[in-house]
Amino acid sequence: MNVERHRLVRAVLSLFxxxxxxxxxxxxETPFRVCRHRxxxxxxxxxxxxxxxxxxxxxxxxxxxxxxGTIICPEETFSFWRLVGHPTARRGFVPGMLLxxxxxxxxxxxxxxxxxxxxxxxxxxxxxAVTERYRHSYDVFPDSGRVMPxxxxxxxxxxxxxxxxxxxxxxxxxxxxxxxxRFLEGWIWSDADQKHSFRVIELDHRFLQDAEGIWxxxxxxxxxxxxxxxxxxxxxxxxGYNLAQVMYEYDPEADRRSGASDAVSVLSP
Length: 269
Prior knowledge:
- The longest helix is centred in the first third of the chain and has 18 residues, at 50-67.
- With 269 residues, the chain is an alpha+beta fold.
- The two termini are 31 Å apart.
- The strands form four sheets. The protein has a five-stranded antiparallel beta sheet with strand order 2-4-11-12-3. It has a five-stranded mixed beta sheet with strand order 9-15-14-13-16. Strands 1-5-10-8 form a four-stranded mixed beta sheet.
- 21% of the residues lie in helices and 37% in strands.
- The protein has two domains: 3-192, no CATH class; 195-269, no CATH class.
- The chain has helices spanning 3-16, 50-67, 80-84, 113-124, 252-258, and strands at residues 20-21, 23-24, 32-40, 70-72, 76-79, 95-100, 103-108, 129-132, 138-139, 164-166, 173-179, 183-190, 196-209, 215-227, 233-246, 263-265.
């Protein structure tokens, strides 16, 4: 099944799937902040072309205008692509960095995954239920100023590799995003004060080497749900297991010296 057929199938399902999709609107008012996060716009990513990093900022400004202010009412679904639309040159998108099979390629609209990463992280810190999310299958770049755990991002590809979340609560939530001078910033607000807060923790992080000398990176992610007034953990759930091939030159000795992680050799695939 080719890309265009995938896109047609997704478009039909979106139109006739019986779901109500969220969009920007002025009401209801959402005075209670649920969470916020920000990520650095320009990062050193291996030996990638810096030009693509600056083009990414251009690409991020366009969906910001369409996502900012989106209100997800009860029983509505947030869809990244439903809001952003097709990222084409005609709409002002420029060549940016894309990842394909663990390799860096150049393509129109490249860099939008940073917006998806930010929104996914915000969703994990809210009562909204993530119903569709895809992760990268490779560890493409060494850590550079990473603040979120490995494997906690979301990849998107128009229109069938989407990021979606449902509002299964009785409250309404508003997503805010902004491209600042140095950071991509995001917030989620609600029309009601929330009883719970959320925390994502990383477990069992390690690098492994197989019998062919290939390095892999592994971890597990769990989400803790806490009583907001007391901070007491009232529930905990597994949200992800990651095992990804490392695509850069990994130096276990340098990691050991820095205390960043433990490397484990594995004798069988």
